[in-house]
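REQUEST FORM: STRUCTURE PREDICTION
Request ID: SP-0412
Submitted by: Lab K.M.
Chain count: 1
Length (residues): 349
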Amino acid sequence: MLLNLLKNSAFSEINKFILKHKLLKFLKVLAFFILGVVIFWLVYKDQDLERIESILKNDVNYLWVWLSLFLGLLSHISRTMRWVIMIEPLGRRPRVLNTFLAVMVGYLMNLVIPRMGEISRCGVLSRYEKISFTKLVGTVVTERIIDVIMMLLLTLIVIGTQFGKILEFLDNNPVVKNKLENITFSPAVIISLIAVVGAFYYFRRKIKHSALFHKIQVTLQKFGEGLRTIKNMKHKWAFIFHTVFIWLMYYLMLYVVFFSFEFTAHLSAIAALTTFVLGSFGMVAPVQGGIGAWHFMVIQALIVYGISKADAVVFAFLAHSSMTAMMILVGLISLLILPFINRRNTESS
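STATUS: Completed
RESULT:
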């Protein structure tokens, strides 16, 4: 009886811990969502909403917006094809349709919980294609590394060609400038890194023999299998093509919207690239769909190129809303049809 009581007490404490962890995670997601909404509100609170509505009704060439959405869809298809190429070295070739639907579900989940999309699409594809979830995560980690490299290359191009504009952007936004300086030169960050390395070195023997370390080691080995897919893939040139094509479509998706408005139609391709890069940094913020943060960065970038804030907020609203609406629509459709197109496989298994 005492043993059962202890077991029940232990399970009760574990359940409390899990519930507390889930609650903290939920509160964190909610806090970031509220932060995004607050930033969005701060950006638009002093704007003339009637003017924005009038411009959106009468002064927008929506053909360019539809072209933007089409280019965005092409980028998602290309990302799907690239992922298939990366999965092949694992000994499986998933169906392209299932892979595309999984990618779109991932985008949808990112709009609900930041960074959840990568896990979600791996879970979807693992379920319907019977591929190791951990190995799929390894391929997605590789994707993210490559995306970061592409983002850095584009950032270097912008800095090299638009250095004066970047300085003007930072001068106009001292908060952003101070944060960059704090991240780069913060003593707390440097001391923390030294402390972590020192603690690991001091306790390395105990850590290496722990069950947690063994579990991490096994997980990293599976990750490694996913990461090695680049080395073992058959279609390296196709992989490179899709990588470049994805980012080209991302850029053009924003650039063509410039032609929707008279006040941005005259801006150059490099101005659009600068806006795209700065907007992408807004997307990195841990808020759903970059809401607020993306708007702020794009608006400030356009101001640097002589666009009034009143016009810039209209541009940012239309570009972000159309992009988000497409992801929600296609993501929901993908979520709904996945069980139906995989019904036979589910029933047979």
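NOTES: The chain has 17 helices and no strands.
Reviewed by: T.R.
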